[in-house]
Amino acid sequence: MEVIPSGGTHGAEIRGVDLSEPIDDVIFEAIMEAFHAHSVVVFRNQCLSEQDHVDFASRIGEIDNDVYGHFSHPDHNEIIILSNILDDDGNPIGVQEAGLFWHTDLAYTQTPSRASLLYSFEIPVADDGTVLGDTLFSNTAAAFDGLPDNIKSRIQGKTITNRHAYAYFKSGHGEQFKKSADALHDVIHPLVIKHPFTGRKILFCNEAMTVCINELTETESEQLLGFLVEHVKKPEFVYRHKWQVGDLLMWDNFPTQHSVDHNFKLPLRRRMQRITVRGSVPRSA
Ligand code: SIN
After folding, report:
1. Which atom of ligand 1 is nearest to the CA of 274?
2. Could you tell me the pTM of the whole model?
3. Is 284 within the bounds of a domain?
4. Number of structural domains, the chain?
5. Cβ–Cβ contacts within 10 Å for residue 59, how many?
6. What's CA 233's distance to the chain center, in Å?
7. Which atom of ligand 1 is nearest to the CA of 82?
């Protein structure tokens, strides 16, 4: 197995591993070490059945329950389909606008996902050969370190309220999440959390879900949140993943946030399958 870092603050390719074959404990530990060191890792050219995908994710931990209720794989409830494709009746086959806003998977629940494993089947490609629909990842530990000292002390000890699909509803894109949003309650998390494995401090608010900073007035909260959600998007903190069919991309949700470049539309098709592995309750740093 070989680990090739992206050259930025995070992101790496892992070569020499076929995830459809049994993986011994030594290789598995090396994968997890690379995962914690680089936060986003890709295995290219994988040929995985649904069961291979489930088996590898289960090795990392307990798989999250399906929160959407209606976008899971017909034969594998633990796999969520993310796609812009419509079926013969014109209904979406999966979550249509996943990643329209920057977010951490399942940070609207008490236990945000520890890891997400996204496997690509179809990738949109423009007529000139440009690959579209990149996924962008911000390193939110580096983003915390890069904050001015006065902001670091302002956010220390504060808490946030997160709500499922908050920015989607606010911007008129929420209809697809109505069912899951009705079933879920707001959650409170620390604004600065400690990574459960590396101990690094992480900025934990996000554009998609964070409604407010609880200890501030509405105006103060809006201003500070506005600053923080833009701060994490700065190019120096961002790794851009250029997809290939057969990529299994795996990311650590605690020190990252992600969004999708929605620069494609039908007839250009994008189809992915995602499994998320349950994390722990975020602890204040
Ligand atoms: C997501 O998991 O939020 C979407 C990622 C992607 O579709 O690239």
Report:
1. 2
2. 0.96
3. no
4. 1
5. 14
6. 14
7. 7
